[in-house]
Amino acid sequence: MLNGSTDSSQPGHSSGSRSDQDTSSALPVKSSSRGGLASVARLVKLGRCKKVVVVAGAGISTASGIPDFRTPGTGLYANLEKYNIPYPEAVFNIDYFSNDPQPFFSLAKALYPGSHRPNYIHYFIRMLHHKGLLLRMYTQNIDGLEKLCGIPDDKLVEAHGSFATASCHLCYTAYPAEDAKHAIMNDNVPICTFCAATVKPDVVFFGEDLPQKYFLHTKDFPKADLLIIMGTSLQIEPFASLVNTVRSTVPRLLLNRHAVGPFEKVPLRRGDHMELGDLEDTVRRFAKILGWSDEIEELMRSQETLSIPPLMSGQTPSVETCRSKQGAQRAASSGSEETDSETDSKSSA
């Protein structure tokens, strides 16, 4: 399903996001007294963490201006009240969509990639890759900001799909993604040219299968030597259970607004740490402890320059155009995305 949450994990919908962040009324658990950031940073500096897995939800994208799904009054679900849907998550139910696609298309206009830029949190994760430490990132988000900041496709699992492709929800015939976007943004319904059913972006809905790439977790999590969980409420299965599949001796670091999932339980596992509060502030502190702050800022500047070419003839280039040029540059220099990934991660050695 979409990614989308301030701190929660939802099937297929997330940042750009299906409120993935936890907004429960429960009192927040205090940050771990074990100095989570410093403890984990020490392990990284000692070379103990070389296969880092990141699990992320919509909370990593709120700093980019993308609302989460559940925050009262401001979440994306709150904007669907005019459609009188039976319950908020119905907008991502494939059977409900088949009957009435309009609520989802209304929501999709706010989620489509193009109007938002990656933030410091995304670039922190990119820096993990740049340092050769990122085994894989598993995101619930569908906003595409992970790719936009330069995280290679082979290092990224978009568990809830994305807007990059589109197809008929009934016969699965592929449909040009740009044509689908144009229709949706102009309040039209894209129609399959084969069976005349409704076309939708390839975002995973409740009732649909997760992408095949998601099942890389069966290999990745047993190999991980550090698990970082960011901006997710860990409420949506099967994504939420992934955090329990690393070895019991592997440190797990929760960076979130609230304690969620296994971090709500006392006592924590001996290798568990959490830092609660504003996520971007927390990540900036973590980067400072690691000594990466200046490198991340430079990476942000260089990537934004690469992603946004100079304006010509008074025209504003679309994000799609910027990204296609970026992809062409990478293809020319590396020959493949996997090679580019390896080159980037080795460049920091």
Overall body shape: globular
Span between N and C termini? 37 Å
Largest sheet: 6 strands, parallel
Topology-level CATH name: Rossmann fold
Strands of the widest sheet, in order across it, are 5-4-3-9-10-11
The CATH class turns out to be Alpha Beta
Low-confidence stretches: 2-33, 309-343
Rg over alpha carbons:
20 Å
Q: Enumerate how many helices there are, as a single number.
A: 11
Name of the CATH superfamily: TPP-binding domain
Helix content: 25-40%
Instruction: State the secondary-structure class.
Output: alpha/beta
Beta fraction = 5-15%
Number of strands: 11
The ordered string of helix (H) and strand (E) elements is EEHEHHHEHEEEHEHEEEHHHH
Which key terms come to mind for this protein?
metal-binding; alpha/beta; Rossmann fold; 11 helices; Sirtuin; NAD+ binding
Description:
It catalyses: N(6)-acetyl-L-lysyl-[protein] + NAD(+) + H2O = 2''-O-acetyl-ADP-D-ribose + nicotinamide + L-lysyl-[protein]. NAD-dependent protein deacetylase. One of its GO terms (molecular function) is NAD+ binding. The active site is at 160 (proton acceptor). It comes from Xyrichtys novacula. The chain has 349 residues and is α/β, with parallel strands linked by helices. It has one domain: TPP-binding domain (Rossmann fold). The protein has helices at 36-45, 94-99, 102-111, 120-130, 145-148, 177-185, 217-223, 279-290, 293-307, 319-334, 337-346; strands at residues 2-3, 12-13, 52-56, 134-139, 156-158, 161-168, 174-175, 199-203, 226-230, 252-256, 272-276. It has a six-stranded parallel β-sheet, with helices on one face. It has a three-stranded antiparallel β-sheet with strand order 7-6-8, covered by helices on one side. Strands 1-2 form a two-stranded parallel sheet.
